[in-house]
Specification:
Keywords: Membrane, Transmembrane, Transmembrane helix. By secondary structure, the protein is mainly alpha-helical. It has one domain (about 15-275, about 315-400). Helices cover about 65% and strands about 5% of the residues. It has a two-stranded parallel ribbon with strand order 1-2. Helix 8 packs parallel to helix 16 (about 355-365). It is elongated.
Length: about 475
């Protein structure tokens, strides 16, 4: 693999990073209890009923309380329940939060070339990437872009003999935009490492650093839920102590942790979704089928445990594929674009309408705007120092560009190129006709002149012959 001679790339071991943090304790596998299926959590009343069922099932004492980890939709609907029931505490599921962090990054940088970079890395279905259909694939693509951008920026800074702190002060818009991606995506990756390594402080501080990006990307629900989540953790020492002890859950292998909502989705809900195929006639039938599927999974795991000796066994093998060539290909294209006088001609930044002075300034000030919007949510809903209003909650502070918009721009450009070629062909035909008509008129005049000259010569020849014959005849008669 070729890399510039002026830059030395050092390999960073993850174990070296982990030495700076206190990794959570190795706890035994948890005791998982499957409760009865309830109504869909699509309303506040259904979520409140489910939380009440949890509280009654556990049977808490006077000084005890229950911590419920849920995705954003359930967390949002459980906030009002926790205000009236002090024994129930809600914790925002970090796996779903990490997924929406990825979607926020895609939304923010959609008009700056992120889809072009994904295409260079080999992504074929950009519409699936835009929607985040596959969590692992989307995470992998954003990680590869993050690595390529980091390589390109560090090589660029090395050549210019600058530091990363001075990038936002220079005039190169492309470097400034993708330095912000490298910085903000680092918060997302650190949050992911905090989940996988079971390090609460890394996970929590990374979420705090990333949180202002939720409102500017139009993620109003997550902006509100993350604000509540951070406030509850910052003001509850017992909860912080508990999460430092067990921020994630270990089910498969030592040192490999899952977020609580991720473990439930991967090893619980996913099995139910795969086995409940036919659409039930009503809600009661759906509950019965979910219960039957859960019992089937429980019996299967007991059988596996007896023969293998492991409580949970992951059946899907991991297919690790090297992407080094694509990473360096994208990195070299980025370096060429950073050093180019017109970077918009580079295929990486084709159809990037936001890559101008207004779009770059909009992106630079967006983070501070996000901090102010989060503070407004806290003042209106937690501290109650401002009157509550939802006006402007869903507004984006950046201009979003979808894959459909890029496809439309590509089609319009193809049509323009085709029309330009047709115009050139018409002009060429008209020039050819004009030349042909001119040459035709000229050749006709010349041929007519030649014919008249030949006719005159022939006539003169005939007259001379007749005169010669007459002269000879007269001379003969005289003799």
């Amino acid at each position: 693999m070729d890399c510039p001679k002026c830059v030395t790339i050092k390999r960073v071991d993850c174990n070296q990073i982990m030495t700076h943090f206190e990794v959570s304790f190795n706890l035994p596998p948890p005791n998982v209890i499957i409760l009865d299926a309830g109504d869909p959590p699509s309303s506040d009343s259904a979520v409140h009923k489910c939380l009440e069922m949890y509280k009654n099932e556990i049977g808490m004492e006077n000084n005890e309380y229950i911590n419920v980890v849920a995705d954003e939709a359930i967390f949002r609907r459980g906030i009002s329940y926790c205000k009236t029931n002090q024994k129930t505490k809600m914790i925002l599921g970090q796996w779903h939060t990490n997924k929406d962090m990825m979607m926020a990054l895609i939304t923010i940088f959609s008009g700056y070339g992120i889809f072009n970079m994904a295409g260079i890395l080999g992504v074929r279905f950009l519409d699936k990437l835009e929607k985040g259909v596959d969590f692992r694939a989307t995470s992998r693509v954003l990680e590869l872009i993050w690595i390529s951008v980091g390589i390109a920026i560090h090589i660029y800074v090395k050549k210019k003999k600058q530091t990363l702190d001075n990038i936002l002060k220079e005039e190169n818009n492309c470097v400034k935009v993708w330095y912000l991606y490298f910085q903000w995506a680092s918060y997302w990756r650190a949050h992911w490492f905090g989940i996988r390594w079971g390090i609460f402080d890394l996970q929590h501080e990374s979420l705090k650093a990333f949180s202002p990006l939720f409102p500017i990307a139009g993620k109003s629900n997550y902006a509100r839920s993350v604000t509540y989540h951070i406030y509850c953790i910052e003001n509850n020492p017992l909860l912080r102590k508990m999460l430092r002890t067990a921020p994630s859950i270990n089910l498969t292998s030592p040192g490999h942790f899952f977020a609580y909502d991720e473990a439930l989705e991967t090893f619980g809900v996913k099995f139910v979704k795969q086995n409940v195929i036919r659409i039930p006639a009503d809600g009661e039938e759906l509950k019965l089928r979910i219960k039957a599927t859960q019992l089937e999974k429980e019996r299967t795991e007991m059988l596996i445990c007896d023969y293998i000796g492991d409580s949970v066994q992951s059946s899907r093998p991991r297919n690790v594929q090297s992407r080094k060539e694509k990473i360096w290909e994208l990195a070299h294209l980025l370096i060429n674009a950073f050093e180019s006088l017109n970077p918009l001609e580079n295929p990486v930044f084709e159809f990037c309408n936001n890559l101008n002075d207004d779009g770059v300034n909009q992106l630079i000030i967006a983070y501070d705007i996000g901090i102010k919007r989060l503070q407004t949510i806290a003042n209106q809903e937690i501290f109650l120092t401002e009157s509550y209003t939802t006006i402007g909650r869903r507004a984006r502070n950046i201009t979003r560009v979808t894959v459909a918009d890029i496809t439309k721009m590509k089609k319009e450009k193809k049509i323009e190129i085709r029309e330009e070629k047709e115009k050139e062909k018409r002009r060429g035909r008209e020039r050819g006709r004009e030349r042909g008509s001119e040459s035709g008129r000229g050749s006709g005049k010349g041929s007519g002149t030649r014919k008249r000259r030949r006719r005159n010569i022939n006539q003169l020849t005939k007259i001379n012959i007749i005169e010669e014959i007459a002269y000879l005849f007269n001379l003969y008669n005289e003799k």
